[in-house]
DNA sequence: CAATGCATGTAATGCGTTACATGATTCC
DNA sequence: GGAATCATGTAACGCATTACATGCATTG
């Protein structure tokens, strides 16, 4: 049982769904491909944390619907008391920022603009998730309270990322306007 | 050549150093163990992107110092024009937040406090890096400008993370105060 | 008529962590 | 006396991505 397995279990603890369903739901918070998810679900079914049945569909492929078992719920609750590992971030932008002095300013700007566009896309997606949570359910005591704070986690991070991009772009472009004498490495 | 390899090259493009040295420098921005780094450096040396020599030390183990070659510099510059992949974040806290409704409030608070402490540690480390960059070198045209914005990237993110923790803790503890009658101010 | 979405799965490969292996010095 | 730091490396294993495999419906 790795973190992704617990994550899948967590989504299925809310409502039953197919592998495809949970894949789409988990994507914004944990990047994982279907080829990793399907075997983990099958394995959890073998360990009796999940049960499944098939829904036959016409005009669409059949669906395998998973539901969490009592044993699965117990496992999840236990997991909530296990130590929280530090988050892992692998961002090529950090590595590229460190050697931006080797490239030209236009390229540096383009790199940061690319990342800014990414954060814009993400903020749009998080904001549309927010809209689906009614305001009266965004308080402690509702199950949706935790959906709300999770989406806000994404918004806080993406906003900070976007702020950083704008801050950097401001400095890079300001320089462009004043036509510096510094020659880029080539 | 994966991203980590390019990252190691990037650090060695600034100044020569041992595997151990680059490991320590890269850690705050890309988590990687020595067991992954040493083989990559050896591989890059075989591909003539790096050269190395041994320094014999008394009272400490000998050091293998790597330096970047012209071919290595060319490779890095090419890399700067390759498309920037989206960042990857794997944070168990996101998964646990999603099923906090299954556990007790005290446990939820402890989880978020743990993460807050992590961000505090990180901010301390980034701030001490900042202090090592003289203010007059924090402008475009200096090589240190990019060190500066990279450290700021970490600071922006850690600050956002800490803000989120405080925001969540405020809501969780507010609830605690109104539910039980007597709560000591802390 | 090519691409995308729906829907499930396996196989091969690459990336990352843990454990194994060694050994001196310094700090608590 | 035990842990941490310095310093390098290999081996085994687990996690993640890409590619292989199928097939129908819709959209541009």
From TrEMBL, chains A, B:
<dbReference type="InterPro" id="IPR036390">
    <property type="entry name" value="WH_DNA-bd_sf"/>
</dbReference>
<dbReference type="Pfam" id="PF03551">
    <property type="entry name" value="PadR"/>
</dbReference>
<dbReference type="InterPro" id="IPR036388">
    <property type="entry name" value="WH-like_DNA-bd_sf"/>
</dbReference>
<protein>
    <submittedName>
        <fullName>PadR family transcriptional regulator</fullName>
    </submittedName>
</protein>
<dbReference type="InterPro" id="IPR018309">
    <property type="entry name" value="Tscrpt_reg_PadR_C"/>
</dbReference>
<dbReference type="Pfam" id="PF10400">
    <property type="entry name" value="Vir_act_alpha_C"/>
</dbReference>
<feature type="domain" description="Transcription regulator PadR N-terminal">
    <location>
        <begin position="8"/>
        <end position="78"/>
    </location>
</feature>
<dbReference type="InterPro" id="IPR005149">
    <property type="entry name" value="Tscrpt_reg_PadR_N"/>
</dbReference>
<feature type="domain" description="Transcription regulator PadR C-terminal">
    <location>
        <begin position="89"/>
        <end position="172"/>
    </location>
</feature>
């Amino acid at each position: 049982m790795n973190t992704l397995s617990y994550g899948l279990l967590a989504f299925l603890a809310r409502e039953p769904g197919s592998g495809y369903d949970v894949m789409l739901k988990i994507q914004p918070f944990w990047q994982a491909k279907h080829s990793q998810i399907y075997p983990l679900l099958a394995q959890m079914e073998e360990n009796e944390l999940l049960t499944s049945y098939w829904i036959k569909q016409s005009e669409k492929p059949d669906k395998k619907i998973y539901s969490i078992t009592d044993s699965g719920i117990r496992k999840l609750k236990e997991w909530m008391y296990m130590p929280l590992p530090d988050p892992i971030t692998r961002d090529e932008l950090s590595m590229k920022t460190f050697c931006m002095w080797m490239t030209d300013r236009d390229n540096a700007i383009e790199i940061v603009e690319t990342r800014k566009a990414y954060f814009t896309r993400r903020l749009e997606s998080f904001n549309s998730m927010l809209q689906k949570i009614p305001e009266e359910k965004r308080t402690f005591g509702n199950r949706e309270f935790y959906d709300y704070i999770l989406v806000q986690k994404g918004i806080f991070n993406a906003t900070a990322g976007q702020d950083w991009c704008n801050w950097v772009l401001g400095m890079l472009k300001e320089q462009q306007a004043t036509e510096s004498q510094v020659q880029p490495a080539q």
